[in-house]
Design brief:
Layout (H helix, E strand, L loop, with lengths): L14 E5 L2 E7 L5 E7 L9 E5 L5 E2 L2 E6 L7 E7 L2 E2 L4 E2 L13 E3 L6 H5 L10 E3 L23 E4 L1 H5 L14 H6 L1 H7 L3 E4 L40 H15 L3 E6 L16 H9 L2 E2 L4 E2 L14 H16 L5 E4 L18 H8 L7 E4 L19 E3 L1 H11 L6 H8 L3 H4 L9 E4 L8 H4 L35 H20 L3 E5 L28 H4 L1 H14 L5 H4 L4 H7 L1 E5 L14 E8 L4 E8 L5 E4 L8 E6 L16 E2 L3 E4 L3 E8 L2
Parallel strand pairs: 12-13, 12-21, 13-14, 14-17, 17-18, 18-19, 19-20, 20-21
Antiparallel strand pairs: 1-2, 2-6, 3-4, 3-7, 5-6, 7-11, 8-9, 10-11, 15-16, 22-23, 23-24, 24-29, 25-28, 26-27, 26-29
Helix pairs in contact: 7-8, 9-10, 13-15
């Protein structure tokens, strides 16, 4: 091995790159006065096998420190020690005793002895430090795989946790692969049979597992330490390239099943936290570049609620974010991204909101990302709320108002009828002004953050005691209703009502204009025992209990048949780029109450009906939403010679609650009796 700094190295590309002459390393640091590349043989090593000082004259161009090392290859462990001023009052926090991760590394390892505390305290932390890994990603055989580019009008998103999906013993997955990318592959037939067309994976970028209260674990993964490396604990393979290859095996298998892969990405903060947090990478490499700082540089701005905020519109950070996204699309074949607290990416280095944030336009306009699904959580923890006003022409948005208004309607809140009606037709009051497609809205009632669908109808209050914060954490505004008893019950009537409410929520989510999303296990009433913030619980509280598939087979069947019909939706409006406003204006539609053409929009109304003609599909439908505590008789349009068919009625027991589309029974008469707290969907075929 030639460990002498080689001035023939190159500043581009950033990170490690394998060449015929060895491995080229490049790191950006504007203020550093010295950089050492340190190599390790094993994750637990306290002493580097080699230390390679980079000459500030020969191995530096602009602010890029680089070298080429011969005699090493894929699998090499390494890190950096970076020297420079330690003057926190103006933002400089260099500490050459700390081993730092390469921001561009494609792999990393976490020693068993790792704890953030050693990276917080003074002194050398080599023995316990996370370490970067050189990974050759060029040799993987994709066997012809390409991104699916599925139409959004036929997309259903299933938000899921890689580990939680198969970690439960009831999964039937072998112990060696439970909770891994490989374990997920074994359960693809379940997703296929259910009708899922896209999985949205909670963070799979490498994260700090101990960024959480003492004695617990960071389960969700919203504490990234890398934007390029897959989380090593999600791989059953332990060789250096194992996590990257196993992730790609999973993507390839999902694509073969017709399922897209969307990643939940966190470009708003890192696991380094506030001023007292661990020095893992960015803070020790170039703190003022990577973070938004306040008070002259002494304090970290916190628009994320996690102690720091990534300086996303700095040119260097912008490039890193776009490079990361390109990597996951071109090298890992990912189909889309959901951006956690995406509104943070619209802030400048002072925290001010930019009208045209460069990083967001960089992402949207990058040709390598064209056709990639981009989904924004259009708010942040600093009070910025941009649902309906998020920048750009291609971003879809998590529609938090859909969640709130659907919950309000089915718990009987006053004034909710008109709001839910707007949500069912694509939230035109929010989105029509942008002349965007009907699928700009991602409709959801539940996600990882909050109650599961079962708990939404089983608890009035959160029960987060297991999180160790005396139930102070988690949202208090849940808009939930327990149907009469807090938590589990043996009362048959309450259980039947809860199942009906679950089906109601699934119905409006999947039938509404937009892209539906629900969280792992909602289709079988998975519970977290009332915990609405289970970010730190890696146990049966958060794992998918596969015995529920049989226990709640009726809910599973109901979901499957809802999704089966969605796959038949016409996609021509999407192909022809018809906007939501155009679609609504051109539609033959009408709102009704119990009387035709007489909708009740009053504050105390709890029912509404909607009818429309789908000429392209040769159908007319009549959707009834009854939030009253009593059954109601709804008038139906008279269609000479064409009977109405009852496809769906959540008030009926299974299997009559939903039918195979072409087996829906006809109904007699000119009215339909819809049960209390129910959804019914009727259709007639056009001649």
């Amino acid at each position: 091995m030639n460990t002498e700094p080689n001035q023939c190295g190159q500043p581009s590309p950033l990170g490690p790159s394998i060449t015929p002459e060895g491995v080229n390393f490049s790191l950006y640091s504007r203020t550093a006065t010295g950089v050492d590349l340190v190599l390790f043989d094993h994750a637990e090593d306290a002493t580097p096998s080699h230390v390679i000082p980079l000459d500030p004259v020969k191995n530096r161009a602009y602010h890029y420190w680089y070298t080429r090392v011969s005699g090493i290859e894929s699998g090499q462990l390494y890190g950096y020690r970076v020297r420079g001023p330690n003057t926190p009052a103006i933002g400089w926090r260099f500490d050459p005793a700390k081993i730092l991760l390469d921001p561009y590394a494609r792999g990393m390892v976490i020693p068993q002895s790792y704890r953030p505390r050693a990276a917080e305290l003074p002194g050398d932390n080599a023995a316990t430090a996370m370490k970067s890994v050189v990974v050759d990603t060029s040799t993987y055989d994709w066997e012809g795989d390409t991104p699916l580019r599925r139409p959004s009008s036929r997309t259903t998103i299933y938000e899921m946790h890689v580990r939680g999906f198969t970690r439960h013993p009831s999964s039937g997955v072998p112990e060696a692969t439970r909770g891994t990318f490989a374990g997920l592959i074994e359960k693809i037939p379940y997703l296929q049979e259910l009708g899922i067309t896209a999985v949205e994976l909670l963070p799979v970028f490498a994260f700090d597992p101990y960024a959480c209260p003492p004695g617990l674990v960071n389960y969700w993964g919203y504490q990234p330490v890398s934007f390029f490396a897959p989380h090593p604990a999600y791989s059953s393979r332990h060789e250096p390239h194992g996590p990257a290859d196993e992730f790609r095996d999973m993507v390839k298998a999902l694509h073969r099943a017709g399922i897209e892969v969307i990643l939940d990405v966190v470009f708003n903060h890192t696991a380094e936290g506030g001023a007292g947090g661990p020095m893992l990478s960015f803070r020790g490499i170039d703190n003022p570049t990577y973070y938004i700082l306040e008070a002259g540089g002494e304090r970290y701005a916190d628009y994320s609620g996690c102690g720091n905020t990534l300086n996303a519109n700095h040119p260097v950070v912008r490039r890193m974010i776009v490079d990361s996204l390109r990597y996951w699309v071109t090298e890992m074949h990912v189909d889309g991204f959901r951006f956690d607290l995406a509104s943070i990416l619209s802030r400048d280095s002072s925290g001010h909101v930019l009208p045209n944030p460069p990083v967001l336009w960089d992402i949207e306009s990058d040709p390598a990302l064209a056709g990639t699904k981009l989904i924004a959580e259009a708010w942040d923890a600093g009070g910025l709320y941009q649902v309906g006003s998020f920048v750009g022409d291609a971003w879809k948005e998590w529609n938090g108002r859909f969640r709130d208004d659907a919950r309000d309607f089915f718990r009987g809140a006053p004034g909710s009828v008109g709001r839910l009606a707007d949500r069912m037709v694509g939230s035109c009051d929010i989105y029509c002004h942008k002349n965007r497609e009907p699928e700009q809205s991602v409709n959801f009632v539940t996600c990882h953050d909050g109650f599961t669908l079962n708990d939404l109808v089983s608890y009035n209050e959160k029960h987060n005691e297991a999180n160790g914060e005396n139930n102070r954490d988690g949202a208090n505004d849940n808009r939930s209703w327990n149907c009469g008893v807090e938590g589990p019950t043996d009362d048959t009537a309450i259980e039947e009502l809860r199942t009906r409410q679950v089906k109601n929520f699934l119905s409006v989510t999947i039938l509404a204009l937009g892209v539906p999303m629900f969280v792992m296990g909602d289709e079988v009433r998975r519970t977290q025992r009332g915990n609405n913030n289970a970010y730190c619980l890696d146990d049966e509280t958060t794992w998918f209990d596969w015995s529920l598939v049989e226990k709640y087979a009726d809910v599973h069947r109901f979901t499957r048949l809802l999704l089966e019909r969605r796959l038949l939706r016409d996609t021509r409006h999407e192909e022809q780029r018809v906007s939501l406003a155009q679609l609504i204006n051109n539609a033959n539609q009408a709102w009704h109450g119990v009387k035709l053409n007489q909708p009740d929009w009053s504050e105390n109304s709890h029912s509404i009906a909607f009818g429309a003609v789908l000429k392209q599909e040769g159908l007319e439908f009549h959707l009834i939403l009854n939030g009253h505590t009593e059954p109601l008789e709804f008038e139906l349009p008279v269609l000479p010679g064409q009977p109405w068919h009852r496809w769906l009625d959540t008030s009926l027991p299974s299997p009559d609650d939903i039918m195979e589309w072409n087996e829906a029974p006809t109904i007699e008469g000119t009215t339909y009796r819809c049960g209390p707290r129910s959804v019914a969907m009727l259709y007639a075929r056009l001649t």
